[in-house]
Design a protein that fits this description.
The complex is a heterodimer of chains A (about 170) and B (about 350). With about 170 residues, chain A is mainly α. Chain A has two domains: about 100 residues, Rna Polymerase Sigma Factor, Chain: A (Orthogonal Bundle); about 70 residues, Winged helix-like DNA-binding domain superfamily/Winged helix DNA-binding domain (Arc Repressor Mutant, subunit A, Orthogonal Bundle), CATH 1.10.10. Chain A contains nine helices and no strands. The radius of gyration of chain A is 18 Å and the shape is globular. In chain B, strands 1, 2, 3, 4, 5, 6, 7, 8, 9, 10, 11, 12 and 13 form a 13-stranded mixed beta sheet that branches. Classes of the chains: A mainly alpha (about 170), B alpha+beta (about 350). At the A-B interface, α1, α2, α4, α6 and α7 of A face α1, α2, α3, α4 and α5 of B.
Chain lengths: ~170, ~350
């Protein structure tokens, strides 16, 4: 692999969490999200020679992501519940401003996920591994969709608190 | 009414908002840059959860193959961009790329256990839909029980023979209503069913039997001994998740069937050691909708025998609203007895 390719991969690896988060914020279906993200990644690699290293790579890659998202949204705006262009643009700006340490704090997520047990773990697996929405999960577990949605909300809150605790603990270490 | 923004965000991420709530969330995001940032943080966690859990599942299931056209097109695109790369370095780059994106070939046609389990979940969800379906049952082979020798007879072996399943027709609606139509060895009609609250059995002669226990007449249902009752596909599919190793079939593309323009895929479930049930269950389903076209049960316990059975979808015609009531299947003058 030549130096240019290695550089592209290094930059992408650092920018990917933010780009991925942005795509997920607009494309809720995980399979569609994977497809869009893959298209963005390929476009980033294809146009990497036009990247000016004096500029922010995240900002440059986010520009490509916006273009790709624009295509995706134009195809779906008529028949799906999606945000309007202004909101999507505001979100892109918000993601661009996320600091690297904020995405790094999510590295604690795996440890926090290990702490989930029983029904909470099952709900997470069905939602995130199997890409099922609350109504489908409810039919599998004999729950109401509303209860599933509330439970997922609580689980995410619990994980957020766990991550914050671990970040605070890490910060307190000498 | 203004909803709690946190609830709106979580509802959005789970695709659980109404159109009005979606507008409310959009307005909230636009009303202050800090709101957009709060939304972005929630999305980051949601995104990372997907990556983390999908990766865990893939790691548990072992290595993947790069066999899907979309993946190949991605490799070609990168090869065009970086022509100096060797095949191996290209593959390595794509692997890094996908590790980075968390995609890990998820949903790209891999035949791993987790992909198979996702497909099974999709089939279960589709099967819960309250659409009426009619299946034909064919007995492909009967495996007679081994001679008992000097062993004492069991309770099951002393029971009268069960009604044959060959030529039976099964009607199902959602997960708990069914009508199974068979003929006894003597050629008389034998119909069992449930409306979801009551179960019932109608023999060619004698009183109609009904029970408030929906499982009361299960003894005559194939698969009831092993929690894979043919008449309740939903329950049976749930059991597959627990007691079977489920894999997508490795059939080549030329072996896929096309019915009504839909591609049909095959899921194969093999019984885990020490679990009860048919040795193997094959489910042919429409790739896009998850609708079951055929199910094949190999060595399904049925009384003292083991049967190889095949269920084939005949139609999805809507049945009358009262079709799953016993009264729709016998004359009004038949005597009805309640059993508990």
């Amino acid at each position: 692999m030549d130096e240019n390719s290695q550089q592209a991969i290094r930059y992408w690896t650092l920018a990917q969490p933010v780009i991925s988060g942005y795509v997920t914020s607009v494309v809720r279906d995980f399979r569609d999200r994977d497809d869009v993200l893959q298209t963005i990644a390929v476009a980033v690699f294809e146009s990497f020679t036009s990247y000016d290293p004096s500029r922010s790579f995240v900002g440059w890659a986010m520009g490509i992501a916006r273009n790709q998202m624009g295509t995706y949204l134009r195809e779906r705006r008529r028949n799906r519940l999606v945000f309007d262009g202004e909101t999507v643009e505001l979100l892109a700006k918000a993601f661009e401003q996320i600091e690297p340490e904020e995405t790094r704090s999510l590295d604690y997520l795996n440890d926090c996920l290990d702490g989930l047990e029983g029904r909470a773990r099952q709900l997470c697996e069905l939602r995130y591994e199997n890409d099922l929405k609350p109504a489908a999960i409810a039919s599998l577990l004999s729950m109401t969709p509303n209860t599933v949605a509330k439970s997922l909300q609580r689980i995410r809150e619990q994980l957020r608190n766990c991550i914050e605790r671990r970040v605070a603990l890490e910060g307190a270490r000498p | 009414m203004m909803h709690n923004p946190r609830e709106l965000i979580d509802g959005y991420l789970d695709d659980f908002l109404t159109a009005e709530q979606q507008v409310e969330l959009s307005d909230w995001i636009r009303s202050d840059p800090s709101h957009a940032k709060a939304f972005a943080h929630a999305s980051l966690l949601h995104d990372r959860m997907r990556n983390a859990l999908a990766v865990r599942a893939e790691l548990l299931d072992g290595p993947k193959t790069l066999d899907e056209p979309k993946t190949e097109s991605s490799i070609r695109a990168i090869e065009r961009r970086f022509p100096s790369m060797s095949v191996w370095s290209t593959a390595a780059s794509v692997a890094v790329l996908c590790l980075g994106t968390g995609a890990l070939w998820f949903g790209f046609g891999q035949s791993t256990a987790s992909a198979a389990m996702r497909e099974l979940n999709r089939i279960i969800v589709n099967n819960v839909a309250s659409q009426d379906r009619t299946y034909a049952i064919v007995v492909e082979e009967v495996h007679a029980p081994a001679p008992r020798g000097n062993r004492p007879p069991t309770k099951e072996s002393l029971r009268p023979p069960k009604a044959p399943l060959e030529g039976a027709v099964l009607h199902v609606r959602d997960s708990n209503r069914f009508v199974l139509m068979r003929k006894t060895i003597g050629g008389l009609p034998f119909i069992t069913g449930s409306n979801g609250q009551q179960s019932w059995a109608i023999n060619g002669k004698g009183p109609v039997k009904i029970s408030e226990d929906v499982h009361h007449f299960d003894r005559d249902l194939p698969g009831h001994e092993t929690s894979i009752p043919l008449a309740n596909l939903h329950e049976g599919l749930e059991q597959l998740r627990q007691a079977y190793h489920v894999q997508l079939s490795s059939l080549g593309p030329e072996e896929y069937e096309s019915q009504g323009g839909e591609m049909v895929r095959m899921l194969v479930a093999v019984k885990k050691p020490k679990e009860r049930g048919p040795q193997r269950v094959e489910i042919a389903y429409e790739s896009k909708s998850g609708r079951i076209m055929h199910m094949r049960f190999v060595q399904m316990p049925y009384g003292p025998d083991r049967l190889d059975l095949r269920l084939s979808l005949l139609n999805e015609n809507e049945l009358p609203a009262d079709y799953f009531e016993h009264t729709s299947h016998h004359s009004p003058d038949r005597k009805v007895e309640t059993e508990n």
